[in-house]
Design a protein that fits this description.
Elements: H1 2-10, E1 25-30, E2 38-43, E3 49-54, E4 59-64, E5 72-78, E6 81-87, E7 91-96, E8 102-104, H2 109-136, H3 141-164, H4 170-180, H5 186-195, H6 203-217, E9 228-230, E10 236-238, E11 248-254, H7 259-275, E12 280-286, H8 291-300, E13 307-309, H9 315-318, E14 327-331, E15 337-339, H10 344-356
Parallel strand pairs: 1-7, 11-12, 12-13
Antiparallel strand pairs: 1-4, 2-3, 2-5, 5-6, 7-8, 9-10, 11-14, 14-15
Helix pairs in contact: 2-3, 3-4, 4-6, 5-6, 7-10
Length: 357
């Protein structure tokens, strides 16, 4: 749920239902910027500048006299202060950037969104409070996990209901965008994308479709997809230099800054020590990292298996639909994928099973 809450807190959307006397839209705002500061109206996806305004007496205004073809999603930003705004023809919106962003629209979609955030915030506060009380009261790990899962499912249901009740407007599309990262089936995501009007306006929905498509292409039973990087000494290298060469290869996508990645390294070292040879090897694929930190971790973690440095190549994670690390994948001798998402004892048991065959 973390991603869901992070996205929900990052954007506050608004549209108006009043009778503003503009063909397009009008946005009135207040901000803490000095007189003469430039405030920007940008596209919500690529942050390209749509319009700009000058802050005067802590106020600013954006006005469009041109009618929109359909509702649009924008960001208003002044330095680190920003607010998300959905606009439609005839909308007159008020934005307060002086503290936490407040966007008002006289009972429109922004008020619905504010109510949604308020409800979820209350549920989250209640969850943290009750979790603490349960932990102090001696609740078991299993009881705590069940409580959290139940509350998270309840919160997810609130978002899903909001989406279902608003599939024909841009507010519903925004809620769908928040939910999109939780989909695991590309077919289900695509099907809902067709039901929710304006869904394709949101980059994160389209990106999640691509991620799930790539996960499907690199699922168990599929042949490996190659990508490039460099060896530790900087010479060019590819995944295919190791995978599909007649041995099992346990590939660990990792980064030096990633705590869970570092915690798996002793397991990988153990497997390399026990089985490394003609039938098996571990391969580290370093991603989303800085080369000096990567090389420093090789020494501090006593890593004893080969490495492919691919932090400069986004294909390494994109082609496998990886959004979080560590992602550990076992490849068969012919290069087909045996299993993804391996960790700890399950990973060690699978490798031992294959080595015993």
């Amino acid at each position: 749920m973390k991603k869901l809450f992070t996205l929900a807190a990052a954007m506050v959307a608004a549209t108006a239902i009043g009778n503003a006397q503009v063909a397009g839209y009008k946005i009135n705002g207040t901000a803490n910027g000095k007189d003469g500061s430039i405030i920007y109206l940008t596209d919500v996806n690529d942050k390209s500048v749509i319009d700009s305004a000058v802050v005067t007496n802590s106020a600013f205004t954006f006005v469009s006299e041109t009618a929109l073809n359909e509702p649009e999603a924008f960001f208003i930003s002044l330095g680190r202060n920003s607010a998300g705004v959905f606009v439609d023809n005839g909308a007159e919106i008020n934005v307060d950037l002086t503290s936490s962003p407040i966007v008002s629209d006289n009972g429109g979609y922004n008020d619905k969104l504010s109510a949604l955030h308020s409800t979820v915030g209350e549920k989250s506060t209640e969850m943290r409070k009750t979790y603490g009380e349960m932990a102090q009261g001696g609740a078991s790990k299993e009881e705590l996990q069940k409580y959290v899962m139940d509350k998270q499912n309840e919160i997810m249901g609130i978002y899903q209901q909001a989406m279902t009740e608003n599939i024909d407007n841009i507010y519903g599309a925004y809620v769908f965008a928040m939910l999109s990262s939780n989909y695991e089936s590309v077919d289900e995501l695509k099907a809902d994308c067709e039901k929710v009007k304006y869904a394709k306006k949101f980059k994160q929905i389209n990106e999640q479709i691509k991620v799930l498509e790539n996960v499907s292409k690199t699922a168990a039973g599929c042949m490996f997809t190659d990508f490039g990087g460099t060896n530790i000494d900087g010479t060019p290298a590819k995944l295919s230099d190791h995978v599909g060469k007649g041995k099992y290869v346990l590939v660990d996508f990792w980064a030096s800054w990633c705590g869970p990645c570092r915690r798996e390294i002793p397991n990988l070292v153990e497997l390399q020590n026990k089985f490394g040879g003609e039938k098996f090897t571990v391969l580290g694929v370093n991603v989303w990292d800085k080369e000096p930190e990567f090389k420093k971790a090789l020494t501090s973690e006593n890593i004893n298996y080969p490495q492919l440095y691919a932090s400069h190549n986004t294909d390494a994670t994109t082609l496998y639909g990886i959004k979080g690390i560590p992602q550990i994948i076992l490849f068969a001798p012919d290069g087909t994928i045996v299993q993804r998402d391996l960790r700890g004892e399950e990973m060690k048991a699978l490798v031992a099973e294959k080595m015993a065959q």
